[in-house]
Amino acid sequence: MKGTVIIACGGGPAPGINTVISSISKVFLKNGYRVIGVHEGYKGLFSADAKTEEIDFEFADKIYTRGGSALNMSRFKPKDEDFSTELFERYNASLLVTIGGDDTASTANRLAKFLAQHELNIANLHVPKTIDNDLPLPNNTPTFGFHSAKDEGVKIGTTVYEDARTSQNWFVLASMGRSAGHLALGIGAACHFPMIIIPEMFHKTEITSDKIACLVISSMLKRKLMGLNFGAAIISEGIFHFMSDQEIQNTGVNFTYDAHGHPELFNVSKSHVFNMLIQRKLREINVKVGSRPVELGFGIRCSRPIGYDLTYCTLLGLGVYELFREGVSGAMVNVDQYGKVSPLYLKDIEDEKGKVIPRLVDINSPMVQSLVNYNLHYLTSEDYEKVDKWVEKPDQFDFHKILGW
Fold it and tell me: Which are the catalytic amino acids?
């Protein structure tokens, strides 16, 4: 054996994780290395009784098309004092491969520095995984799992939209996406939803629950003018992460709170909260429109990867071996649209605190502007006279005024 490759997965699942694990394992096994998978991510890496998996070709070959992750995952975020060299030394590790999103990448960056300080000659490469698509890969290259999760969301979204048409109702969907609105935007655009709300839209104004409700109602009123009594709105859950704690409390939802006094958002269904805010506002203005909540959350994370991600994740796994052979360490693996592999060094994409800077939706991009200008339905000043038969203050639901655009 030339050495050992250790693989660990952090954060939440995304379609294609098993393809990456399989591809890394196969290429390293073929070239004389031992491959060890560590369960529970960073928690397992630094645990005295870490649960590990000896990965052989048979194991790797059985998992490569499956959804979920053959290595159990964890959101554990170690502090510097939690770091340990024990497992690396036990297995005589040559390479640590971390698979994860921005938090996992940020921790990998700190860990690389720790290993260097302890004079352990262990390379560290990170594979960019997240359905949020918010890692700063160049040339708009997606993170793996994004397209598969979007595809699964679109299947649900188009069915929901057909239900809206059939039942003459509205649906309010909440999509995953902690820091950025890529997933909500992608699903909403593909499904031709008349309203899409993502955090990046609020770059000129504060995010409030009232503004979210008014944006959806703006679409409802515009559709009524068009003679349509049905529709669907999709809202990125990341909206909540940019609200103040006080604004979240003002929603009236009975949240539980963490040790720091912050609302524990993961304990509630975001779609139910959004729908409640909208219905509350509709009653306030005495407009009757039925709406129902749909959560696009955990149901899309462990879906089987589509063909795009099966190929992309295979190339990412092979890219790990290619960069390792070149002596690269402390980098994220990047594979462009032509299949060219290159390193994206973590130190070059971190902020002053060592955290990887998330990639947000470019609200001024041609794609977003085209969708906003031509595909969404909302009130403008030209609609005021037509809609005042339903609402006393039409300007309250003017899309551009709400966002300060």
Answer: 132
Q: Would the CA dihedral through 279, 282, 288, 290 be positive or negative? A: negative
Query: What's the CATH number where 118 sits?
Result: 3.40.50.450
Using alpha carbons, select from 19, 17, 57, 14 the residue that is nearest to residue 35.
Answer: 57
What's the pLDDT at 173?
A: 98
- Integer CA distances (angstroms), 267 to 101, 254, 270, 331, in order: 21, 10, 9, 34
User: What's the total number of domains in the chain?
Assistant: 2
Residues 121 and 209 in one domain: no
Identify whether residues 22 and 35 lie together within a single domain.
yes
Mention every residue, 6+ apart, whose C-beta is less than 8 A from residue 347: 109, 330
How much of the chain is in helix, strand and coil states, percent to nearest 5?
A: 45, 15, 40
146 contact partners, CB below 8 Å, separation of at least 6? 14, 130, 131, 132, 133, 182, 183, 186
- Reported as a pLDDT band with limits 50, 70 and 90, residue 281 is very high
Is there a domain that residue 266 lies in?
A: yes
pLDDT tens by residue, 74-116: 888 888 888 998 898 899 999 999 999 878 888 887 888 888 8
The residue-averaged pLDDT of 277-291 equals 95
Measured between alpha carbons, how far is 216 from 378 in angstroms, rounded to an integer? 8
- Give yes or no: residues 187 and 324 share one domain: no
What are the beta bridge partners of residue 296?
175
Same domain, 91 and 13: yes
For residue 214, give its domain range: 148-301+375-403
Q: Looking at the structure, tell me whether residues 204 and 134 fall in a common domain.
A: no
In a domain, 172, yes or no: yes
Average pLDDT of the chain to the nearest whole number: 92
365 in a structural domain: no
Residue 258 has pLDDT above 80, yes or no: no
What are the pLDDT digits (tens) for 311-346? 999 999 999 999 999 999 989 999 998 999 999 988
Structure tokens at 172: 């309010």
Length of the chain: 405
Tell me, what's the pLDDT at 243? 83
